[in-house]
Amino acid sequence: MTMRIPNRSFQTVKIFILGLAIIFTAGVVGAEQIKITEEEVVEAQKDWGDALVSLGKTYSDGQNYRQAAESLVDRLYAYQTGQVLFKPTKAADVKFRTTKEGAVSYFVGHDKNFPEDKGFALEPWTNVQFKNAAIYINGNIAMAMGKYFFTPQKGEVAKVEYTFGYVKNDDGKLKIVLHHSSLPYSKK
User: Fold this and answer.
1) Which of 108, 99, 41 is nearest to 74 (CA)?
2) Which of 152, 126, 130 is nearest to 57 (CA)?
3) Using an 8 Å Cβ cutoff, are 75 and 51 in contact?
4) pLDDT tens readout for residues 11-24
5) pLDDT digits (tens, 9 = 90+) for 119-162
6) Cis before residue 124, ω within 30 degrees of 0?
7) Cα end-to-end distance, the chain, whole Å
8) Do strands 125-138 and 158-168 pair parallel, antiparallel, or not at all (unpaired)?
9) How many CB atoms lie within 10 A of CB 124?
């Protein structure tokens, strides 16, 4: 059985196929543009460490550290675009911080909803150094895990283990969607 397609229907089919080709091509180009690179992950880690050090300095200098913490969370985490999975190092009562308020409280404390928080960033730290064990990248999603080292003004460097997950936004910036941090296991 042979089916005849009227000329008008044939034109519609050609336009539809052409439209699909344009969408597919744009998708491929768009996918290449949003792919995360290892260098971007390393830069995002440096930005996070520098922001944490800066937040501690803001506190030490008597400036508005809460506003600085809110800015840090807005700039580096994806709370405004979706859920963030944040498990801070030193949280026992409220172990998971799925809201911006919970993240800000962890960094600077002084929040009645999170009374255990003393303000991790208020140490203050003078340096944060990431040492990646591995980085996984799949398009606009990346994950990194390893150890990071926090240098205080006085005392020993704190060694902490981490897993961070990133997405690349439309503006080309990486945002944290997963932050899991814990102290190394000890056989003591």
Assistant:
1) 99
2) 126
3) yes
4) 544 444 444 344 44
5) 999 999 999 999 999 999 999 999 999 999 999 999 999 999 99
6) yes
7) 80
8) unpaired
9) 19
